[in-house]
From TrEMBL:
Protein name: BAG family molecular chaperone regulator 5
Bias (Low complexity) ranges: 25-37
Keyword Repeat tagged: yes
Keywords in alphabetical order: Chaperone, Repeat
Length: 483
């Protein structure tokens, strides 16, 4: 390994220390100057030691997903700076090849320093942190702080919706394929999804019908006592996941939850089905909390944030590739006026396939599936409109406003064909032209006066929705979203 690395620094193959035959003293002297220094040379040995340290730090730098104020960032920065100073102090004896080796070693360390800083200060990383802070403030205000003050956590649909909104925003953060950014987004998403699952899965205390026997009353009372503990544990778990817990640990919380399970198992509720069912629900909630405990450290030793390797994503990508193939065929036939190629049944089967894809409650996979569904539906609506336009036979008594709506729909069909085939970016002139033309069609529909004709009102409303869907689809195709 040492020989290979040293030779890569010199940029030439290593000859194993052998001397080649030569044609004279001058040529021999020139070749001696060009040959690599032996690995036992003091400068080479020192550079090799530096390389070993760089090799151990490299993976840590390439997967670091924190910020500049994190302890690990400061440690990595300190270690790399030290290595850079040590490389600078290597004595090259004025030899060009040693100087080249030292320069390349310095460049490698500088590259890691630059990569570390770029990821920690990347706008997407800062956006992830801002959203995480917003979520942290939300759960602290609604769940953690009230529980610590001896009150009741404010868990309602408003909180769940707010968490869902933050999750959606996180899925839209672009990572540019960088592992540290993917890892940071994955960690933030898994925690928010876990918190959402925790607050949605809470069990309410049950009021059972009277009269109850003394034994039955005692069992319900003890289950309710455990429910109070579960409520506290829920807040502790939320605090752990959001980094709001200064003293609690996963191990401590896991031990408390396990003790609650043991306490519930010891209850004799065999004589009452309602109480038995109540206990079962509480046990299930405890199990639900336990499965999220390990998330406090998840992301440090996992590669699940690389969704390109996810089987569900692979299924979705296979469907998208099939859609592209069908779409290209449809557009080719439509370009020559041939409407015979209508693979609607095949497209419908793709929708069914997408509906069966397991998202595992992962918001990124859910979004990838949603976008694939939109792509399929866009092709289906294009075929439906083309077919409707081909079948249309307006009569002499058709309302002028109704005819005007159909004229706009004809223009929208042509524009949709261009949108389906568009494969550019928002800065492209063709994108801006399509956006402008679609907006003009919306204005044309807005100018149609139905004069009280109900059929025209319905047709115009549908045409407006159709035009907006095309605009939304064009926007989706160019937003550079990634999973």
């Amino acid at each position: 390994m040492a020989v290979r690395w040293l030779c890569s620094l010199f940029g030439k193959p290593f000859d194993g220390g052998k001397r080649m035959d030569n044609g004279g003293p001058q040529q021999q002297q020139h070749m001696e100057q060009q040959q690599p220094y032996h690995p036992q040379h003091p400068a080479m040995m020192r550079l090799y030691e530096v390389q070993k340290e760089v090799a151990s730090l490299g993976p840590q730098v390439c997967t670091f997903s924190g910020l500049q104020n994190d302890r690990d960032y400061k440690r990595l920065e300190r270690e790399l700076t030290r290595l850079l100073l040590e490389v600078d102090q290597v004595d090259t004896e004025g030899k060009p090849e040693l100087q080249g080796a030292r320069k390349r070693a310095a460049q490698e360390v500088e590259g890691l320093l630059r990569y570390l800083e770029e990821n920690a200060t990347h706008p997407s990383r800062l956006a992830i942190e801002d959203l995480s802070n917003e979520a942290r403030a939300l759960v602290d205000d609604r769940v953690v702080a009230p529980q610590r003050a001896g009150g009741v956590a404010e868990i309602n649909d408003e909180l769940v919706d707010a968490l869902q909104g933050l999750i959606l925003k996180l899925t839209q953060v672009k990572t540019e394929g960088r592992v540290p950014l993917r890892k940071a987004r994955y960690r933030a998403l898994t925690r928010l999804c876990a918190i959402q699952d925790v607050v949605e899965g809470r069990t309410q205390q049950q009021t059972l019908s009277l009269p109850l026997s003394g034994e039955t009353h005692e069992a319900v009372h003890r289950i309710n006592q455990v429910m109070v503990k579960v409520s506290v544990a829920r807040s502790q778990l939320v605090a752990l996941l959001m980094g709001l817990s200064g003293r609690d640990s996963c191990a401590h919380l896991s031990r408390l939850l396990t003790e609650m399970q043991v306490e519930l198992d010891a209850l004799d509720v065999s004589g009452n089905a309602a109480i038995r069912n109540y206990r079962k629900q509480v046990v299930e909630e405890i199990n639900g909390l336990l499965k999220h405990v390990d998330l406090e450290v998840e992301g440090d030793d996992t590669r699940r944030y690389d969704l390109a390797q996810n089987n569900s994503i692979r299924e979705i990508e296979a469907v998208r590739a099939h859609v592209v193939h069908l779409r290209e065929g449809i557009l080719r036939h439509c370009a020559v006026g041939d409407l015979s190629f209508r693979p609607k049944a095949e497209l419908q089967s793709l929708l069914t396939h997408l509906d069966q894809v397991d998202t595992a409650k992962n918001p990124c996979i859910r979004e990838a599936r949603r976008r694939a569904v939109v792509e399929v539906q866009a092709v289906i609506t294009f075929l439906d409109l083309r077919e409707a336009l081909a079948r249309r036979q307006p009569g002499p008594a058709e309302h002028p406003a109704h005819r005007a709506v159909w004229l706009v729909l004809g223009s929208l069909s042509d524009l949709q064909a261009q949108v389906l085939g568009f494969d550019g970016k928002r800065v492209d002139k063709s994108y801006m032209m399509l956006e402008e033309l679609l907006t003009k069609q919306l204005l044309a529909l807005d100018a149609v006066d139905p004069h009280g004709d109900e059929m025209t009102k319905v047709a115009r409303k549908q045409a407006v929705k159709f035009a907006q869907n095309i605009l939304n689809y064009l926007d989706m195709k160019t937003d550079e979203w990634e999973y």
